[in-house]
Design goal:
The longest helix has 38 residues. The chain has 8 helices and no strands. Helix content is 82%, strand content 0%. The chain is elongated, with a radius of gyration of 25 Å. Helix 6 packs across helix 8. The chain is an all-alpha fold and 145 residues long. It has a domain of 72 residues: Orthogonal Bundle (Arc Repressor Mutant, subunit A). This is RNA polymerase sigma factor, sigma-70 family. InterPro entries: RNA_pol_sigma-70_dom, RNA_pol_sigma70_r4_t2, RNA_pol_sigma_r3/r4-like, WH-like_DNA-bd_sf. It comes from [Clostridium] symbiosum ATCC 14940. Pfam families: Sigma70_r4_2.
């Protein structure tokens, strides 16, 4: 009889531990997401704040500088130095030069695939295929690090 009580006691202890662990994990998750939501500013609010504070010109200036940074490959390397996410940075650094340019021109500069294909002297289909294959490669690299 005592063995049964000991077994139930151990099971109850583990169940209590598991419930506490799950509860604490949920609390951490909620706190983290609340913190993120508090830090985010809706687009409408940020546009209003820019107009009110006169910082809209400043942000446009920063965007122009970022676009100019990505014009040639040396500047792409400078931009890589600004990336804080270590996994992303490691994955990007493993890419060949053409893929780095393609990713930065498409994502940072917002260039069309036609523009990218013309700059790299490749067919547009190859630019599209290379872009999406590179994204897959980056995702895989970041998952498996």
């Amino acid at each position: 009889m005592e063995d049964k009580n000991k077994e139930f006691s151990t099971q109850d202890s583990f169940s209590a531990y598991l419930k506490t662990a799950v509860r604490n994990t949920k609390i951490k998750y909620i706190k983290k997401h609340v913190k993120i939501q508090e830090a985010e500013i809706p687009i409408e609010d940020s546009a209003y704040a820019e107009a009110e504070s006169g910082q809209g010109d400043y942000y446009r200036h920063l965007e122009e500088q970022a676009s100019r940074l990505c014009e040639d490959f040396g500047d792409v390397e400078q931009l890589l130095n600004l990336i804080e996410n270590e996994r992303l940075l490691a994955a990007l650094m493993k890419l060949d030069d053409e893929r780095k340019r393609l990713i930065f021109w498409r994502i940072i500069n917002g260039m069309s695939f036609e523009e990218i294909a013309a700059r790299l002297h490749i067919p547009m289909k190859k630019a599209v295929d290379t872009y999406y294959n590179t994204l897959k490669k980056l995702r895989k690299e970041m998952r498996h690090g």
